[in-house]
Amino acid sequence: MTTFLTHAAMQVSEVPKLKQTQPLKIVALGDSLIYGFGDPDGGGWVERLRRQWLLPDSRGHVLYNLGVRGDRTMQVAQRLEVEFRHRGELRNRVPDLIILSVGVNDSSRVGRLDGKNYTEFERFNAEIISLLDLALQLCPVLFVGMVPVNEAKMPFLDCLHYNHRDQYLYKEATRIACQERQIPYLDVFQRWMEHDLNWICDRISADGLHPNALGYQTLLEEVLRWEALKKYVDQVK
Questions:
Q1: Kind plus residue range of the DSSP H or E element containing 10
Q2: DSSP per residue, 142-191
Q3: Adjacent-strand bridge partners of 109
Q4: How many Å apart are CA 209 and CA 194, to the nearest integer?
Q5: Pairing of the two strands 185-186 and 141-144
Q6: pTM to 2 decimal places
Q7: In a structure prediction context, what are the per-residue pLDDT tens digits for the chain, which is 237 residues long?
Q8: Bridge partner residues of 64 (DSSP)
């Protein structure tokens, strides 16, 4: 049976203070939305942002893409601190900020439309809370929510049924857990659902699950306008 890591087992550390005189080191940790699957042009929103910070006139922030396709919340938690500890590029410093994005894979129903969720909801709720608590003991945390799927293209890989109803349930549990911990949460699902179905489908790949190049560019623009992120990245002179 898979066990969920506790605070003691992870040996979490004190939150480091952000430096205002040096570029930030940021880890983006999560599933395929972090990895950027579906975007052969730009490599996803994280890679698009990383490239912006490589320009000569940029602030030079260091951004590590630690997305793994198919990861659920439990798997992200299991690799959280190990990934964090091995991303201290400058003078062995650990990262200054964690960006999390996970949960959509937990919400899928396995085998059939009315099958069990890949991660049962009560377990997911406990796991997302534990993940956030662990991350907060390492450094400041931001959370980027999931995008809505194209339900007409389901099932994904002929076995995983994603739907808006379950997505909403799981993203709300995440949003509330973030709110209770004062973790900024970018509610991408809600923002995209305010548009019509054609707008959403134009931004989702043929598999119905992952954003396409336009979708990731749209997501990047929303992230760049996000005051919570600007609070950190704009403070470096």
A1: helix 7-10
A2: EEEPPPPP-GGGPSBTTTEE--HHHHHHHHHHHHHHHHHTT--EE-HHHH
A3: 117, 161
A4: 18
A5: parallel
A6: 0.89
A7: 444 444 434 444 344 454 456 789 999 999 999 999 999 999 999 999 999 999 888 878 999 999 999 999 999 999 998 888 877 654 457 889 999 999 999 999 999 999 999 999 999 999 999 999 999 999 999 999 999 999 999 999 999 999 999 999 999 999 999 999 999 999 999 999 999 999 999 999 999 999 999 999 999 999 999 999 999 888 754
A8: 27
- In total, the chain counts a number of residues equal to 237
Residue partners of 55: CB distance under 8 A and separation at least 6: none
The pair of structure tokens assigned to 14 is: 């004190």
Distance, CA of 23 to CA of 233 (rounded, Å): 8
CB 80, CB 10: distance < 8 Å: yes
Asked whether 189 and 204 are in contact (CB, 8 A), the reply is no
- CA separation for the pair 142, 99 (Å, rounded): 5
CB 211 within 8 A of CB 219: yes
Q: Which residue has the tokens 């996000």?
A: 226
Structure tokens at 153: 């293209």
What whole-number distance in Å separates Cα of residue 156 and Cα of residue 71? 15
Closest by alpha carbon to 4, among 122, 110, 140?
A: 122
Tokens standing for 34?
Answer: 């972090």
Q: How far is CA 168 from the centre of its chain?
A: 16
